[in-house]
Design a protein that fits this description.
Mean pLDDT of chain A: 85
Distance between the termini of chain B: 48 Å
Low-confidence stretches of chain A: none
Low-confidence stretches of chain B: 1-8
Strand content of chain A: under 5%
Number of domains of chain B: 2
Number of strands of chain B: 0
Helix content of chain A: over 70%
Shape of chain A: globular
Shape of chain B: flat
Radius of gyration of chain A: 22 Å
Radius of gyration of chain B: 24 Å
Oligomer: heterodimer
Order of helices and strands of chain A: HHHHHHHHEEHHHHHHHHHHHHH
Number of strands of chain A: 2
Strand content of chain B: under 5%
Structural class of chain B: mainly alpha
Largest sheet of chain B: none
Number of helices of chain B: 4
Number of helices of chain A: 21
Chain lengths: 497, 166
């Protein structure tokens, strides 16, 4: 199936009632998650994950991915209306977006965000369609040595890039990998670190870890400061239309933001956040209206929004082609695939083309839904923001606990939720990065699998893992990334002295 | 919390102290983990057993935790004071944490409905400034409603409480 045929197949599949509903529910749920404080896309997607086990595989995967893009929009909505970005990726949008709102142009800002996100999503989908099969073709050359380099090397690189310092990413990563070894080992059925507790044989589930680290811990941090007293800016439906000048300023910014965002999405790390910052800096250099940036310039809203959505779509390329999630939310997609018996990796496009192309098609449909639904519903989002925290936060906790308990009806998951909430709270206070924790939990078992396969194939010869050009190249790239960051610090220090 | 140039500093701030403590805890856990790995079947290099990967992970955990301790002790890469709650909010955070722990511990005994209702009542009472009986009522109703939606409308199956049967 060629790229164009695949995309058409994907779009046709995405327009079936089942996937339309999944895209709709995911986009709306994602927006609500982005608008409301406390639950980010990772915790929100983790809550949805157990509900997807009884559905067909593609439905759950589409829902999680739609939550991701929806949460980007939701986080930016609070950035504009309240000057409070719901996600890190919306920080730059808050600068000019809220300034526009203060000038009475909140509706136009929201429209520019929504339209820009859709355009970026559409451009991103086309690029994913072109890039992914090529990358998957390269991936077909992969054996255990290459897979190990990709998974383990990618995990190490992600941990280094994600954290500000080496320990900020590596420590959570290795703890996540360590937790992933608990339970009944797959090949020999040996019980590892179960402490004779029968429930521990099932291992540590991703859902309570993700919800505890990213959801409950975030709630506790929110409680530390009094709830926001600012009232959200009111937006009338008729104020949603941008002026002709605003349209003219937005178009080139959308294009630039989309390209920057997609490129960042292909790379490991917090791509949505980095891309929004990078695109804003680009606008400061090249935008026609650059002097107005910071005071309510349209480019300051259009470009970062396009960038963060394009980055989310760009992240699909390594996810679908190589089975490598570059974000914690996409780690949940991998988890959803594995639970449903789907092997992520370069063979996905060959073995499960319907999943591959349907997800790409559904992303375009989800972006269209965000555009069509979220603007008329802006009044609903404003009302959501008025819900008092005294009701919202306990409600989120109850939803989180029920969600965790329902995964396996296991008390272990409930206690793990509490433990991870405490761990997440402490780690956030001490500036550790949490995304590598989740990635370690998901990718650690995959790394073990490829290591053992390689040793079995090579009859115990460790040099097998550095015997192919692809594996060597990948390890060298990882080494450069890890060491390069340290060398850069040394040079910076020397320049200062 | 700020990123600073790598400089040795004898003044240990809260974040650095905290990271040293976390690094030490992980180091101890890593040592115990690695020691236990030796009790698992190692197999051979050609047919590795269940112990191989844990041994690698255990050693990596020890190395990384030493790196964490060293980074906190000898550099100021991540530094600053640990952010404190706003005045008067420490009590709220602690009380809410206690309520969550209580909810999780009581859940298997009192079941999802009673657990969510009780937690909701306590949590809203803690967070809301207003008439107390109204806070309890709103919180209990919130917990019960959410549980009802999940169990009856979404069909999520949850184990009943061992003491209440509900």
């Amino acid at each position: 199936m060629g790229p164009l045929d695949g995309l058409l197949f994907g779009l046709e599949s995405a327009l079936t009632p089942e996937l339309l509903l999944a895209s709709l529910v995911g986009a709306l749920a994602g927006t609500i998650i982005g608008v409301l404080p406390g639950l980010g896309p990772v915790a929100g997607a983790a809550l949805v994950l157990p509900l997807t086990f009884s559905m067909s595989p593609i439905v759950g995967i589409v829902m999680i991915a739609a939550i991701y893009v929806g949460s980007m929009y939701g986080g930016s909505t609070t950035a504009v209306l309240l000057n409070m970005p719901g996600e890190a990726a919306s920080v730059m949008t808050a600068v000019d977006g809220h300034a526009m709102a203060q000038k009475g142009r909140a509706g136009a800002a929201l429209s520019i965000m929504a339209i820009g996100s859709f355009i970026a999503g559409a451009i991103g989908v086309v690029l994913v369609t072109l890039f992914s099969p090529v990358l998957a073709g390269v991936g077909l050359l992969f054996g255990p040595a290459e897979y190990l380099a990709l998974v383990a090397g990618g995990l190490i690189a992600l941990a280094r890039v994600a954290g500000g310092s080496a320990a900020s990413g590596f420590l959570p990563m290795i703890v996540g990998v360590l937790l992933g070894t608990i339970g009944q080992e797959a090949i020999t059925s040996t019980f590892r670190y179960t402490m004779d507790v029968p429930e521990m044989a099932l291992g540590v589930d991703l859902v309570p870890v993700a919800i505890g680290l990213f959801g409950i811990a975030e709630l506790l941090l929110l409680l530390e400061n009094p709830g926001r007293s600012a009232k959200p800016t009111r937006v009338r439906f008729r104020e949603l239309l941008p002026t002709r000048d605003e349209w003219r300023a937005a178009w080139p910014a959308w294009g630039r933001g989309s390209v920057v965002g997609f490129a960042f999405g292909l790379l490991p790390g917090p791509s949505a956040t980095l891309s929004s910052f990078a695109s804003y800096r680009l606008e400061k250099s090249v935008a026609r209206n650059k002097k107005a940036l910071g005071t309510g310039a349209v480019e300051g809203v259009a470009a970062p929004e396009a960038a963060n959505n394009a980055a989310a779509i760009g992240g699909l390329v390594p996810l679908l082609s190589l089975g490598l999630p570059f974000s914690a939310t996409f780690a949940l997609v991998i988890s959803a695939m594995v639970v449903q018996g789907i092997e992520p990796g370069p063979l996905l496009i060959e073995d499960n083309p319907e999943i591959f192309w349907s997800l790409i098609g559904a992303m375009l449909v989800a972006n269209l839904m965000l555009l069509v639904l979220n603007l008329p519903l802006v009044g609903v989002w404003v009302q959501l923001l008025r819900i008092p925290q005294s009701l919202l936060l306990p409600g989120i906790v109850v939803v989180a606990v029920i969600g965790c308990y329902s995964v396996r009806n296991s008390l272990l998951d409930v206690y793990m939720l509490g433990l991870m909430a405490a761990v997440g709270y402490v780690m956030r206070k001490l500036s550790f990065d949490l995304a590598p924790f989740v990635l370690g939990l998901v990718l650690g078992p995959l790394a073990e699998k490829h290591l053992r396969e390689g040793l079995f194939l090579s009859r115990g010869d460790m040099s097998y893992f550095v015997s192919s050009p692809i594996a060597i190249t990948l390890w060298v790239l990882v080494l450069l990334l890890v060491v390069g960051a340290g060398i850069r610090t040394v040079f910076t220090r020397r320049r200062r002295t | 919390m700020t990123m600073a140039a790598t400089e040795t500093s004898t003044t240990m701030d809260g974040v650095r102290r905290g990271r040293m403590i976390v690094g030490t805890v992980v180091l101890i856990a890593g040592l115990a983990y690695t020691v236990h790995a030796f009790s698992l079947p190692l197999g051979t290099m050609a047919q590795p057993g269940a112990a191989l990967f844990p041994l690698i992970v255990g050693v990596a955990t020890i190395v990384i935790s030493i790196l964490t301790i060293g980074e906190a002790r000898f550099t100021t890469k991540v530094t600053g004071e640990v952010g404190r709650p706003a005045p008067g909010r420490t009590r709220v955070v602690l009380a809410m944490s206690g309520a969550i722990v209580g909810y999780l511990l009581l859940l298997p005994f009192i079941g999802p409905y009673l657990g969510a209702g009780l937690f909701g009542a306590v949590a809203v009472l803690l967070l809301r400034d207003g008439v107390r009986w109204k806070s309890v009522l709103y919180g209990a109703a919130l917990g019960l409603l959410i549980t009802y939606v999940f169990i009856e409308l979404l069909g999520v199956r949850l184990a009943a409480g061992s003491l209440t049967g509900v």
